[in-house]
Amino acid sequence: MRALIWAELYKLYRQPRTYYALGAIVLMEVVILFSAYYQGSALIDVLMSTLKQSFYFKGDLLNGNLLVYVILNTIWFHLPLLLMIIVSGLLTSEYKDGTLRSIFVQPVSKSKFVLSKYFVAMLFTMVAIFFLMLTAFGLSYTIFGRGDLIVYLDTLNFFENNDAMWRLFWAYLSGTVTMMFYSVMSLTIAIFFRDTTITWILATFFLILSNLMLRVDFGTSLWGKLLYVKLGESWQHFFYYDINWQEIVLNNTILLGYTAIVMGFGILVFKHRDIA
């Protein structure tokens, strides 16, 4: 099993699209920061125009913490798409190149083989989130400095610099669970359909459908609470004044359970499918 994991890591390290994906993350961040540099002040003025008539604000509200939060919100659709493309390629490229046949000529367990791919997929997801977080904090603080964070969730919430930084840090960690679910789902789709193009189309469709379902208000129904897209929004809870840790932990635990179910289903299908 260890040898299989190292082999998958090596293949991921060697393929160019891995670095294209990381480069795309940085490029998207740069575009967001560039837009904020030229238009951010105007947007802040519009947002705060009413409050500035009654309150005096000291310091620059357009700061690194706000931009880290903006990046977190803006990139949350594009990042899973990149991850799903890279992760699904761990298997579809094997089908395309015909290397699976030569692999299973050797005494390799199908279950361990695909499990190693799932393990590497989740590991790459964690690395990508860490890279996103590191570059987001680094670029935002370097260009805009630090300051208090303003977030609009039902009402305007203000967080001091240190408090904002830790809330953002925990939000990125919570979002990692969501990203791992999408990565595992894309690899499972690859197991079913094998073809690279079809897998990418279906993975994109799944992501678009998930975003549409996210906008549906299910109220307080059990379905609304247990739906995976709603669970994946747990990172937003860090930007209410009172953090509901119990709900965040519960939601992420359930989402990890969904991830395990999808992974188990994929392993079962791959184990009983002929390699063609």
What overall form do the CA principal axes indicate? Answer: globular
Which spans of ≥5 residues are poorly predicted at pLDDT below 50? Answer: 46-59
Q: Give the overall average pLDDT.
A: 83
Helix percent reads over 70%
Largest sheet composition: 2 strands, antiparallel
Portion in strands: under 5%
Rounded radius of gyration (Å): 21 Å
The count of strands amounts to 2
Count of individual helical segments: 11
Task: Determine the N-to-C terminus distance.
Answer: 23 Å
Spatial strand arrangement across the major sheet: 1-2
> What pattern of helices and strands is seen along the backbone?
HHHHHHEEHHHHH
Structural class: mainly alpha
Overall structural domain count: 1
Write the SSE topology.
Elements: H1 2-14, H2 16-52, H3 64-74, H4 78-97, H5 99-105, H6 110-144, E1 149-153, E2 155-159, H7 161-193, H8 196-214, H9 222-226, H10 228-231, H11 245-271
Antiparallel strand pairs: 1-2
Summarize it.
The protein has helices spanning 2-14, 16-52, 64-74, 78-97, 99-105, 110-144, 161-193, 196-214, 222-226, 228-231, 245-271; strands at 149-153, 155-159. The chain has 276 residues and is mainly alpha-helical. Strands 1-2 form a two-stranded antiparallel ribbon.
